[in-house]
Input
Amino acid sequence: MRYLQENNNVEKYKSDSKDMSIIGILSSDARIPLTRIAKKVKLSRDAVKYRIDQYEKRGIIQGYRTVVDIKKFGYDKYHLFLKLNNPSSSIEEKLRKKFVSYPFTRAVIKFSGNYDYELAIVAKDIQELDKIISKIIEDCSSSLHESDLLLLPKTYIAETFPPNFPGHIQNKSSQYSSNQKIDKKDIEILKILGDSAKTPLHELETKVKLSADAISYRIKNMIKSGTIIKFVPVINYTSLNYNLHTLLLNISSFDEKKEKILKDFLQIDKNTLWATKTIGKYNVLIYLLVKNVDELQETLIKLRGLFPAQINHYETLIAYEEYKYIYFPKELF
Output
């Protein structure tokens, strides 16, 4: 799951190098103090605040989320791709509202292509997954033409922006071994930060009934343990002249050697936003963020060159709109 959001006809934003730098810094840590951003971009604190306020006002930044490792809570991640049977707009709207209302969905994306929707879902075990899939199929009823479920065992790349973005800052990969015990107060903090990652400590203090120092200590511990991965802005890519494409690949005999070749390529590909290994009809899922078709084709051609005559099947989808986007589904806790 990666950062696409409601378009709402947001106008294109004419940005400069300072804007790109500020957005890039926020994408690496949305809770970074304004004074630190100001120092990095060589502007005053007030000038940085004004620019960020403008990004939010113009819909370039549409909120802030906390990226949480849901596996720490015993959940596995799945993506369900749905092809509908050309329902009327009213029926599709009802279905979309149901998809969004499910407590087990973390993202709902509408596509143009061979699939109409992608649902990012979580489940604790195969029995729970079976109930979830049965519920979705039942709700779709005759409107469902086809569905494909993918399990996500590992992530290769997870960025807010790919290297083709002028303000790109590469994520620093960290390995955590701490098995921190999460208690009710930690859950309360995550429920607030999950939807609003920039909530200041004094507001958390009032809501959670703990001191600012105690809350700060708990947040740091959750970061150290890997429960909190990072804090990110919700970027409206369309306003920055980018388009999001989803690529589904089935590579034959996808063994460790081929997996390493793919992973090494994804690490340097300038258009890759997010990529994961999958189990199901496809064994790779990639999100590409590009400004034009040529950039999309550039990555596709390179992938074909890496695996000549080994890509059995692939699908490219144009992400149209995302109706839900969370990392910590608080209704489950």
The chain has a mean pLDDT of 92.
